[in-house]
Amino acid sequence: MFRRKFNSQILLLVGLLSSMALFTYLLSTGGIYYYDADFNLHIGMHLDAILDRQGSRGHPRATKKKLVLDEKVYDRYRALNKSMYRYSVPRDYSCFFKDKLQGPDMPDVHSAFADPIAGYVAFIGLKFLKQKWHSEVFACEFPDGKLTKSNPIIDDSRSFGIMPQYVVVITCPLPDRYRWRAYFNMTLRRLSIDAAYSNITVCTSGVSPETQYQLAICTMVKSADSFIPEWLDFHRFVGVEHVFIYDNENEGDTKLPTTVKDYVDKGFVTIVPWAHSVSRYKTYLEVQIAHENDCIWRHKYDVDWMIKIDVDEYIQPMDAQRPRITDYLQDELLKSLGALRVQNWFFGHPRHITPRGNSTITRNLWRSEKPTHQNTGHDKNILRPINVHYFKIHNVKLGGDIMSADPYKELRMVHFRVDNPRALRFELPDFNVRDKSMLRLRDLVRASKSRSP
């Protein structure tokens, strides 16, 4: 009897020591994601449903849960390579380069993250047309000595737009032991020659099976704070569930966290630091295209539809019986698309009229008689991230088919370009038709906001 009790105590002690050793190991190597004790249960409950996204949308919507960080894990990972990384607002376990990685004989890399749902590490970058990274093989070297070779890289050679830019995405299979880590250090090595990005910290993508969005927006801004609150209120009213704002302003100069604090606190906005520099012989579009492809690849498995617009652009539902953007995205035929294209329609005011007030909408109640012609560089898209491989500003470079929404009966993009102080690189049309439809919508938005707590 005593021996049996003694053996039970020994087994209990061994189990306790093993648990302590595992906890110490996890802290020293990056820890797990935020799942803690129920970690395996959460994966078992949700992973199959998430991976089925390419099929039917029959999976139940996951409950949105507030992320609770393990402060010890967070502080340890934040201290690593502090000079190289910045963090989102609100903070989570994701991290972002302060600037892109550049090295001799290596691709320019604007972001790197581990996708626990897809099971790979992704490196997002831009390249010159002459660079043939698709013919190369890279190795991802992990801290425990494991090595995985890159998946086949698809070449981006499509040139469109006045300033061609080319995307490269490198992915490596993620060993199981790193799949749900908050972060880990690794090396990306080019195998044909001795070139590598060594000992870089890769953080998790920030995506959780617990949080799913049917419709989100991804945009990049720089010193455009005055446009943002009204733009956010409008799109929340017409069905957008979350907005990812990539902040292109320098860390010491940005006021965006203050401008959108209420929206962040309510879980509607995430700010991503993105003050990257422009490479020699590339244009300012490099940084914009890099953020677009980072957002698409980072959110392939938690966003069904992603609107890609600027903060002077509004997606307007045109059918009063279908007042939400999501009302136009329910057709089963749309699920295989790469994007639903929304035609651009400029709004402004005639030169002889002095606009009043500080609302972008009330200042610009006139439009051109017709929308801009399709495929002339002004239309924008509502993307299906799971079906897009490469993207550039106005179009899917590689991915599923594209359909256009009817700008008279379905959706149009109202473009308030007149008030935007950014340099104008094209000619605006005559604003000769008064159109108060956006004003009526704005009044509904304000009434709705006044009723909400």
TrEMBL record:
Keywords: Glycosyltransferase, Membrane, Transferase, Transmembrane, Transmembrane helix
Any Pfam family the entry gives: Glyco_transf_92
Subcellular location: Membrane
Claim: Glycosyltransferase is one of the keywords in the record: yes
One CC-aspect GO term: cytoplasm
EC number(s) on file: 2.4.1.-
Membrane topology listed for this record: Single-pass membrane protein
Enzymatic class: transferase
InterPro entries: Glyco_transf_92 (IPR008166)
Record-level Gene Ontology MF annotations: glycosyltransferase activity
Organism domain of life: Eukaryota
Location (main, coarse): membrane
PANTHER family per record: GH12965P (PTHR21461:SF87), GLYCOSYLTRANSFERASE FAMILY 92 PROTEIN (PTHR21461)
The family this protein is said to belong to: Belongs to the glycosyltransferase 92 family.
Identification of the protein by name: Glycosyltransferase family 92 protein
Organism (species): Acanthaster planci (Crown-of-thorns starfish)
